[in-house]
Amino acid sequence: MDLSNKVAVVTGSGQGLGLAYATELARHGAAVVINDVDRATADAAVATITAAGGRAVAVVAPVGPTETARKLVAAAVEHFGRLDVMVTNAGILRDKVLWKMTDDDFDAVIDVHLRGTFTCVREAVLRFREQGEGGRIIAIGSPAGQRGNFGQTNYAGAKAAVVGMVRTWAMELQRAGITANAVCPVAVTAMTETVPIFAPYIEQMKQTGELPAVIRREVGMGTPEDVAGLIAFLASDDAAAITGQAFSVGGDRLALWSHPQLTATAFHDGGFSADDVAAQWPIVFADRVESVGEEFPEEVLAK
């Protein structure tokens, strides 16, 4: 996988998943713009990449504002001459149940995840179109956006919207040779350490350095490095025909999420009154309702 002719921006790449993505892109030859809100963290990430022979610079700024998006694209062009890949990874959590979630809790998460994805992709696409050589949008989603998750109204809403934007961008950008895909990773990070069901397994990993097979395969959860290979692939020329897709990746599992489809349909001349709906519900729809939330193996739930 040769990315030596590519330049990538990875938001939120000072540590965790973002750093794994940036490191993997650099390992395959890409020049990388690192982004973080903390100068020391960003500089350490750059040092890690350059010490391994890679090329990287840092932009220290919070993702969300258009100004930051412009700084990121400008840094790529100033230091490396172009931009080919935008990976929108930056994120924060403000988890609370609906009735306890404040406006600030909601707005902060939406600003980073949703607005940050929008502003960074918009600026990247402006540059891609100017260059006239296509480009790669890799937007980081989450299983929470696909299935919902308790206590994550803000996060799940933002991540669901990210996938919706990717599907739209895939249509809008196709003629320009720009692909847009979403990646929904599951990995041991500071963000997943707060999830109670994962806590004993993460503790086990800290003690032994390993996760059990049921977690790596059935849950699809592993290390940040387990996710990074997909990012490098989607950034490559080999992925030029792949667009509008949502991937699930983690541990030993790689999968595609389906797009929403109609699962049950009824027809009634003249439309449906409330009584018509009530009559059709048990016949057509009652046994076709779908579950919400992530579904885990019994072995995991019982631990």
From TrEMBL:
Sample GO molecular function, one term: 3-oxoacyl-[acyl-carrier-protein] reductase (NADPH) activity
Protein name: 3-oxoacyl-[acyl-carrier protein] reductase
Keywords associated with the record: Oxidoreductase
Superkingdom of origin organism: Bacteria
Family named by the database record: Belongs to the short-chain dehydrogenases/reductases (SDR) family.
Domain Ketoreductase: 6-189
PROSITE patterns: ADH_SHORT
E.C. designation(s): 1.1.1.100
Family annotation (Pfam families): adh_short_C2
